[in-house]
Amino acid sequence: MQGRALNMNAVPYSMLEANKAQILRKMAQYQTIYRYDNIMQLDFELTTRLRIVEASYLLYRSGVRFATFKESECNETYWLRTEKGGFKLKENVLPSVALNDIFFNGSLYAFECAVAIVMVFYKGVLESIGKRGFNQLFTNLVLYSGKFDEDLNLQNHYGYDFLEGDCAYFKNPDHHEDTPQWQGENTIIVGDDLYFGHGVGVKSAEGIIELLNKKRKENATESAYLTSYITRVGFRYLSQFYVHRDVLVEVDYDKLPLVVSQIGSSTYIG
Questions:
Q1: Among 19-23, 110-114, 163-167, 199-203, which is the least confidently predicted range?
Q2: To 5 degrees, how large is the angle CA 17–CA 23–CA 26?
Q3: I want to staple 41 with a disulfide (CB 3.0 to 4.6 A). Which of 60, 185, 194, 239 is the partner?
Q4: Total structural domains in the chain?
Q5: Predicted local confidence at residue 32, as pLDDT
């Protein structure tokens, strides 16, 4: 590790409230090395991860319903329902207004789990970069499975460095052919062994697997399982729009790049 090493105790507590510190400790335990150009990028990622977790619980309590694409519903004041069952932002509607409506008028909406994940990602980003930046970036929102604005800059990889705010996928290989919606479950990691999935709620990995196993075909032999496929928001790219990017910090973090790692029993950023 090049450059000056800083013990994490030297980082201002205002930058590392309890939940952020918890994520940092997890990052330090993994073999993965997390690099940042500056402390602002790190703080943006930690903040946005927590905003995504908050958005997951907000969506969970919003009253939205699970539905296949064929049966999806939306508030037509803000969205046009497409032929495939997705939602397209109406002209002259602010993206932030339409997105927030899903979370606060959930009873008007029904959709499947992959769409819910993208909604939660968008909401977490909105709360981190603010309405002005969000409305500039996401002027043509379309909510559909596998469809997202390139400015969300989603990153996919295989691994087991699961962190709050990540999307983790549970696969159900022996699902019944008549219910393809149960071939798996997209979830947001919201805590230690806690996952939010639209249509299943907030459960442990064991709880989600147990539920998916009830959706298998007759005489199924292979259990559902948590895969190593992880999807993350493009934190580095989006950090340039961070509403707190100009906040001064008390420690000199001008040594680049930053690396979160573990040496002995201490956690360092250096």
A1: 19-23
A2: 140
A3: 239
A4: 1
A5: 84
Taking residues 137-146, what's their average pLDDT? 88
**Residue 136's pLDDT is what?**
94
Task: Retrieve residue 145's tokens.
Answer: 């499975």
Looking at the chain, how many residues does it have?
A: 270
Is 92 inside any structural domain? yes
Q: Which two tokens stand for residue 61?
A: 């309590």
DSSP-assigned letters across all residues of 16-84: S-HHHHHHHHHHHHSSPPEEESSHHHHHHHHHHHHHHHHHHHHHHTTT-EE--GGG-B--TTTEEE-TT
pLDDT in tens, 51-91: 999 999 999 999 999 999 999 999 999 999 999 999 999 99
How far apart CA 183 and CA 176 sit, in angstroms, is 8
Query: What is the per-residue pLDDT across 26-42, written as a single tens digit (0 to 9) for each?
Result: 888 888 888 888 788 88
pTM of the predicted model as reported, rounded to 2 decimal places: 0.85
Q: What is the pLDDT of residue 268?
A: 44
- CA distance readout (Å), 252 to 9, 176, 234: 14, 57, 25
Three-state DSSP at 144 gives: strand
**Residue 1 is assigned to a structural domain of this protein:** no
Classify 146 in phi/psi space as left (phi over 0), alpha (psi -120 to 50) or beta: left
Residue 151 has, within 13 A of its CA and on its CB side, a CA count of: 18
Q: Which domain holds residue 169?
A: 39-243
User: Is residue 224 included in any domain, yes or no?
Assistant: yes
How far is residue 158's CA from residue 127's CA, in Å, rounded to a whole number?
27
What kind and span of H or E run contains 217?
none
